[in-house]
Structures are given as C-alpha cells and as structure tokens.
Design goal:
This protein has about 180 residues and is mainly beta. The chain contains no helices and 19 strands. β12 and β13 form a beta hairpin.
Amino acid sequence: SSGDVWSVEVGSSVVMSSEVTFVSRRELRFSLPAGVGSSVGVRVRSRSGEWSNALFLSYDRPELARVDPPYGLAGAHNATFVLCGANLGFADTHTDWVRLGGHVMGDVRLLNASCVAAWSARLPDPWPQPDDADVSVGGQTAVRTQGLFEGIVRPSISLLSSTTRPTAGGSAVSVLGEGF
C-alpha cells in the first residue's frame, strides 16, 4: 500500500504510487530515477492533489578517469577526444560543456553511460591550461583533473645547427625549439 501518496516528483521525473513503498505514515521509499544535477527538487503529491513542500537532493557529480587521445596539438583542426568516467549523464543534453587544456570544446555527444565524445573545429594556440581536463553535467562540474590530458605546444624552431652542409647531404643537423 502507498497510503495517501499519488506520486513522488524528482526534478522532472515522476515516480507513481505503484513504485513507492509505504513504510509508515512518516516514511516512504522509492528508487531514485536516473537524473543529473544539484539541488533537484523532491515533492510528494497526495491522492487528493495536494503537494508537499520541496526538499532538494544532488546527484553524484561527474568524474573523469581518462581522455583518449591523452594529448592535443595546439592549433590542430577537427580534433575529437573521448572522455570516460562516471556520472556523465544519460542524454546529450545533460553535458553542459567539456574543457580540455582550458579550452571549451565545441560539440559534445554522449556515447554511453560512462563516455562522451568532444569535438573542436580548432584547438587553441597556445593552450590556456595545458594539463587540465574537466566536464560539467547538469550544472555540476567534475573536480578539475590533471594528468589525464596534455596540451602539446605547436612545434616551433628557434635554431638550426650543423658543422657542415655539403651539397651531397648527409651531415648531422640539430634543430632546437619546442613542441617536439
């Protein structure tokens, strides 16, 4: 029996009385529906249509465990990355943004319950925060994670050095710079 309960509303999800366990006049139990976000309202509706006050719960915040590939070359075009972890939502619309190396990626698609693909038409040059990876799902941001991603500097040459340069080639040349 569900007592006088018609439904329980969790955010935009409705748990009908047939899915609510009436423990006593002071306690109900139900399975939390899939959802994302913080401060999600929970209300109970009686069979007569009266609503309870709302209390709020927060779903677990997203977590990142890996980025593939784990690097991105500054200035690269049409770059796609797969980020995997936990609590990344269950619909494309749940992901607010993905940020790699301090750069907000242009497009994000949910691949499955634990992975999203992020795409950018052009990666920044230079990287704002080359070691960071983070994601926001339902208004909750993962703890910024370092070590999962490396924004690689675009190759730049500052000096060429060789002892000889015969027209037949074959002499050793040293290239100094960064990004290689």
